[in-house]
Design goal:
Length: about 350
């Protein structure tokens, strides 16, 4: 087994200097660091993570808390995870996924064991119990999402106002004057303060009148079957609608099948535009969905960076809002001429 002594001899430094670098306990000059890292690579040295954690009192592990029982995993969520993991790796951290609930109970138990240095919260509620838990535990954390009170909280999020405005403007520019927004089910206690649902609906209620549009909002839970059922309600209650925007990506998938079963052709009879979706998910339907592409890769990286800056004592990352952007598909077109 290759030892620290072997690395030190190869790099021409003391074992103490190698230890400083490995345990992150004292700064090491860039040129010396390069020599040590090259020696480690040449010799095939592997760091002892447990020993490092004991020496530095840090694990260099961060957790991404995702309430998987309430929110399904999809391609959009996967983009957040993978970009966050890559951002962590580049800064010598490991990222683990914690599928813990939104009530904060399980999270309280986990952070109390000292398993991680900090936490990135996803699927944030406007009043999120997990924030209170982490503040009480004095655990560093960052939000991918926003609570209603943000003072002193490191956060990044989707710019829902810009996303909805761009979606409406695109459809309006094509000639659509009868649109419907299918939002989340805010009557469900689990989602009554869920940021993406609340903010998307609020943005649409503000923006639609600015374009002279009737504000029509329907609710749907986040499943493909619910999306199918929502389309049946749309055709029944709003038969003159020429475009529908859908917040939940699973409901959006169901909407295509639902409209097809009802004898509607997409986009000839009605245009379908999901507001938050990844291209891989959009490609699952026929025709392939035109989408507002969720900024998961950017936000996963930014949320992780915001947390690591706290852990490293660096300048905080300013709060950032990133809009979803139009991504071409085949489910949006001008409405039929009347």
């Amino acid at each position: 087994m290759v030892t620290i002594r072997d690395v030190a001899d190869r790099a021409g430094v003391s074992t103490a200097t190698v230890s400083f670098l490995l345990n992150d306990t004292k700064p090491v000059r860039a040129t010396t660091r390069a020599k040590i890292e090259q020696a480690m690579a040449d010799l095939g040295y592997r760091r002892n993570v447990v020993a490092r954690a004991l020496a530095s009192r840090r694990t260099h592990i961060i957790a991404m808390a995702y309430p998987a029982l309430d929110h399904k995993f999809g391609f959009s969520a996967a983009e957040f995870f993978t970009s966050a993991a890559e951002a962590a790796r580049k800064q010598d951290y490991h990222l683990v996924l914690w599928p813990v609930g939104n009530d904060g109970t399980e999270l309280d138990e986990l952070v109390g064991q000292g398993l991680v240095d900090g936490v990135v919260l996803m699927e944030v509620q406007l009043d999120d119990p997990r924030v209170t838990v982490l503040q009480a535990n004095q655990t560093p954390f960052a939000l991918i999402g926003r609570t209603s009170a943000l003072e002193g909280l490191a956060h990044v999020d989707i710019d829902f106002d810009k996303t909805v405005e761009d979606a409406v403007a695109h459809l309006y520019g094509l000639g659509h004057r009868k649109m419907v927004l299918v939002s989340g089910n805010l009557a469900d206690p689990l989602f009554s303060t869920y940021g993406p649902y609340v903010r998307s609906e609020a943005a649409y209620r503000r923006i639609a009148p600015e374009y002279g549009l009737e504000t029509v909002v329907m609710e749907s839970s986040g499943s493909t079957r619910a999306g199918q059922e929502a389309m049946a309600c749309l055709i029944r209650d709003h038969p003159d609608a020429t475009a529908v925007m859908i917040v939940n990506e699973f409901a959006a998938l169901g909407s295509v099948a639902g409209l097809s079963r009802l004898g509607r052709t997409i986009p000839d009879d009605i245009s379908v535009l999901p507001l938050l979706m990844a291209p891989e998910m959009a490609a699952l339907t026929n025709p392939e969905l035109t989408i507002m592409r969720t900024p998961g890769p950017e936000l996963g990286q930014l949320g992780t960076e915001a947390l690591i800056r706290q852990l490293e004592g660096a300048d905080p990352l300013p709060p950032q809002l990133v809009p979803a952007k139009l991504y071409p598909g085949a489910t949006v077109a001008p409405p039929r001429a009347e």
